[in-house]
Design a protein that fits this description.
By secondary structure, the chain is an alpha+beta fold. The protein contains 19 helices and 27 strands.
Amino acid sequence: MFEARFQSFEDSADPSQGPARLAALRAELARRGLDGFVVPRADEHQNEYVPPAAERLAWLTGFTGSAGTAAVLMDEAAVFVDGRYTVQVRGQIDTQAFSPQPLVDHPPEAWLGERLRDGQRIGFDPWLHTPAQVERLARAAAGAGATLVPVDGNPIDAVWHDRPAAPKGAVSLHPEHLAGQDRAAKVAAVRDALRDGETLLVSDPHAVAWLFNMRGADVSHTPLPMSYALVPKAGRPILYVDGAKLSNRVRDVLEGSAEVADPAGLVAALDALGREGRRLRFDAATVPHRLVEALKAAGGDAEVGADPIALMKAAKSDAERQGSRDAHRRDAAAVARFLHWFEREAPTGTLTEISCCAALETFRRDTGALKDVSFPTIAGFGPHAAIPHYRVSAASNLAVGPGVFLIDSGGQYEDGTTDITRTLCVGPPEPAFVDGFTRVLKGHIAIARAVFPPGTTGAQLDPFAREHLWRAGLDFDHGTGHGVGSYLSVHEGPQRIAKTGTTPLAEGMILSNEPGLYRAGAWGIRIENLILVEPRPIEGGERPMLGFETLTFAPIQRDLVARHLLTPDEELWIDEYHARVREIVGPLVEPDVRAWLDGATRPLRDG
């Protein structure tokens, strides 16, 4: 009945392959006169989701997480991951061949600095590291008397004999009525942000897609065309994208805004600009070291900093805001159908984590508008709910029975990107869980109700989500909210609500609101809606203010809420939110789902 078409539950990790592949890589390094090599989980654009051909870290080590790095020496190797993947990495790699290491507390450069010896040469692929990453590695190598060496051709590619081909996903045009601006207006805005004589290299495919109102199919879950662009202060932009991905119509439209060129010619173009002494601005977060060095070696002036497109893209146009509202209403109906189905079927003991993923994806596909899931669904029962970035596989799939079930999912629609988490309980919840759930909900409400002046950063709001957990000696180790794109990445920067969120929040930005609480080996709690920054004028106030419009509409399980922990304002927020859920979602679903929805969203005082 239910089917998952946009996500797989096969565990591609095979720790048994690690030692042989590590030996093959070491032999190739020796042939090249290298004593080691650094393997990031990255492609040429630092994408979150990368094409299969760029999954070098997974091929070598077996680790399939979305972030990590391996450092390989001739007698030792390590895999560095952050706290999201501490458990996963140990299950996916051969720990006799690779030592798991904490990425934050003991990063690759520190590990290498302790082990490299005088005169050694450590290789890196200059297409897969940003300049800042290279600088850190080079400093560590130099401190040990070693040398960091850029390679010409990745040595893993030389021993990965069945490596997939580069992606050839078709490029499509993103409609102007959904984008809200035409290509010419966007190019003009970028030019206004540049100084005289300056050219911007756009290395983030999300930014290229936004700038030229195009989308692609080169990676999973995000409609990206792998591409670059050069935008001069004056003159015609150049879009570097594989011509095989362009239909005649798409090429004709894009050529109305830019010269279309093959990406293979980008290095030569930078060399030519460098010989002319031109000044280029590069995006520090995504530009490959190779491209910056190409300009500098030819005599050009390189400025590595923020891409101005990032903030332009983050502040959604009126059309994108309305598109997101429409997408969320459509998505809300699918989520309501899933929640109704789950409440009916979970007590039977027939559900599994995978069957829940497949069911929710099916309900979304049944809308007729789903393009993809926005990320692999996180569906964890019991102890798996305590792993914030758990990804179910056929091997790990648990049956759903009495206890806690957390499901974090989203959809990609042409008019918007969604992301929602609900924590559910089958059977009576334990008191400690109800207490934790209510404290997480209080933090969620505090963010949703926040009012703040322009210039306020996500770091300043982040404590709102944690206060009631802190009062009980509790906390969570992830950010409270990430930015979200418009039919682009579900994890968009630079806006975020987190201790590290230094970008001021501005009107039109979309973020998640997802505080949590996790008890290892037992349960996890996360409540997530998406929110839109909007003006919030205060009668009699002296300054303009901002607040949040909630975009996500789905019931929050009422019997998990401890009313005695709520203030009257918090209880009112929940009841008003649920009233909006009934108003918006009720007309979109079938009578039996509507009847369930009415019960799931009745006022808290009704018991």
